[in-house]
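This part of the workshop introduces the protein records we will be handling. A learned vocabulary of local backbone shapes supplies the integers on the structure line. Getting from the letters to the tokens is the skill we practise here. As an example, a complete record with its sequence and its structure tokens follows.
=====
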Amino acid sequence: MIQPMFNRFRFKIVFLAIFLMACSAAKAWAADVVIIMPFENRSQSAQFNWVRESFSILLADILDAPGLTVVSADERLQAFDQVRLSPTDLLTRAAMIRVAEAAKANLVVVGEFDIGGDKQNVSIAISARLIETEAGRLIGNKVFNFSGPLSDLQLMQGQLAWHVLYERNPSLPYTKEQLVRRATNVPPRAYESYVKGVQTLDLRLRESFLKRAIQEHDTAGAPGHYAQAIYELGVLQYRQTEFEEAVTLLKRLTKGDPHYEPGLFYLGQAAFKAGVFNDAAAALETLAGIAPLPEILNNAGAALTAKGENARALPFLQRAIAANANDTVYRFNYGYAAWRNQAYDEAAQQLRAVVGSNARDGEAWFVLSKCLASAEKADDAAKADNEAKRYLSAYARWAVAPDKVPVLARMKEDLDELALAKLLRQQSGTSAQTRATPQQISQQQALDNIRQLLAANKDAEAMAELQRVLAADTANADAYFLRGIVYTRRNETENALRSFQAAVSWNPRMPEAHIMLGRIYLVRRDTARALAHCKQALEIDPQNREAIALKQQIEIGR
């Protein structure tokens, strides 16, 4: 049924997509990606094992120059898992390169350290290397050696960071002294407590170390605040359900601080659970403007709904559904906000989808019954009410005291920090004319070839190439979009739908993917989701003719 409509738009949309993606490919510059491996402790002193990870922790914070991206701790752990190794293992160079390749890093920093001196005068000797992953060779054939008192660890790590940057770009916009100053802006004792805190699995010990780090930072009279320790402690307090303490801590983070964006997410979560809906909405709205990931959009909409601003909540929830139409949390929240905004038909459509997915969702039945009653559909409302009685344990209590019904908006508890980091990197790299890595050049060439195959109607060959691209990069939004085009031509609607959904999940600002999703949903008579995708496309590109035409078609269909 969907094919006749797509036939009218297929060549126009494909031509438009090929043109847009060819343009974006010409601009697709990317930074070097470096992974810092745990340094090997050559001493017999296990008490200094905390130093192993200190290199990746500090370098991740200060190696943020244009042209270089540092693999995060979570991404590195994921890479270790992928190759079935542990960060605690003693690795050969070949094994380290395997981990780097799994993390899609073209550079890897490896090293070792030895501890000397006595208890009163502990010294450290460091040896580090920068390796190019593809060739497996030392960059510049250099080994970087540093030594001195352990209290100068950050100074030496700052010098190492500068050498890493200098080897890739001798025309650095700042000096070694400036980078070392950044590395040493935290007092050594506070830094040691922080590094120990983030590594320990004992939650009480972690809390103790992090609190000590903040106190040692402040006691030493260091400028500003210890943002990294504040963030880690705030998230820890949140996970231990100490919501008010988490709010107090996370509100101290300011724009430009390390972890500012994920800090806003957990601030919003903690404030919501503490019932401070103003703070929750403010934090999550700010974050949604920076990084419109589905869980962030959902939580911003949920917080606004809890605050009573239902009309303002709906656009956020529409965009969340546009990114993942199968998530019942998003659809419940949209239906709940629409009901409270007196848009009963729209609300009922979403809530029916929720109970259709989970017939035991008593809250959804309860809200649906109220929605249908408000729409004067008495029979349907009575049926929904019976289901609510059956599955909602709080039904009797809420029926006796309707004013005691709590806020029912549902939050997403977990943030996809890898997706957030990728999105922030994309944003920070849009204006940086940096050199593409060999892997990225290869991917762009493959995508260009796929577009040529599609233009020549060689869909089978294009699909084979797409499978290879996605096997190498499972987060490639362009590849998912092009795969959706192939499925559309084949009239494989479900596969096309999943491909376009994956495209907007990895790149929410891809208007052509939103347009294709809007057309699919329009044919399915799911006007709410069709309109959500259409609005998203117009928000990204207000002059997009295809999006404007789709909007007119949706309005006529109504």
